Each structure stands twice: as C-alpha cells, then as structure tokens.
Amino acid sequence: MKSNPEMTIGDVAARFGLAPHVLRHWEAMGLLSPARAEGDRRHYNRNDLYRIALILRAREAGIGLEDLREMLAAAEPPARRKILHRHRADLVRRIAQAQASLELIDCALTCDHEDFASCAHFRAMLTERVEQVSPTLPASQVRARRGD
C-alpha cells in the first residue's frame, strides 16, 4: 500500500459520508486544494483527508466555514487564537447547556411521580430558566414578570 494513496472525489465523499458537491464547495472556498490529474479530475491524498477531518470537526464544534477559512489562512498565531478563543467560549457554553439538559432528562427518568413535570425536584431544576429574563424583552414585560 502506498504511503500517500490518491483517491477520487467519489471515494473521499463516500469515506466521510458527504456529497461530492460539498467537497467542491469547500474547494471553491479555499479550504481544500486537491491535486488535479488527467481531465482536470481531483485526486485527494492523505493530507487532504486530514484537512477534511479538521473541517468536519470544526463544523461539529460550531465553527463556520468563513471563520475556519480565516483561521487556516491566518499567517500569525495570534489571529488564529483569537478565532479559536471565541469559538471555545461558545462551545463551553453549549456544552454546559447540553449537560443541564441531560441532567433534566435523567431527573425525569428517575422521578417516581406520576407526572414528573409537577415534581418539586424537577421544577427546581427549571427555576433558573423560569426566572431568567430575556435581554430582548421590553422593560414593561420585565417588570410584569417580576411583579413590580
């Protein structure tokens, strides 16, 4: 087996569960640059596979393609770190929200009450959300919610 085998766009798309047009789009955005061979056909090597895996993982983390392109194109590490720090903070927030949701589901699954939604323990887990005031609410609605 060659140390750096080349694959077609169809092979790579199938390997990652993507449609070929997704790889073409990423190439058009400058995120990928596969080698070209006879008939202008794309040929992907192992380095391209790592780049695709990076793009997919970044997308899973909530990093948009524009930010990813900017980060990968940045010549200076501080520019890359700035983007990564911003996305890290967002990812930490989303993980905390997902953890709270998981705890709520676990509470409902282990609740002995006939209607877990009326359980005091279950409701206590929701109190912060009930009391939370949206920053987009008009002041009159905020006062009404507080009972002012």
From TrEMBL:
Pfam families: MerR_1. The keyword Transcription regulation applies. Gene3D superfamilies: 1.10.1660.10. Keywords: DNA-binding, Repressor, Transcription, Transcription regulation. SUPFAM superfamilies: Putative DNA-binding domain (SSF46955). Residues 6-74 form the HTH merR-type domain. Signal peptide: none annotated. This is MerR family transcriptional regulator. It comes from Nonomuraea zeae.
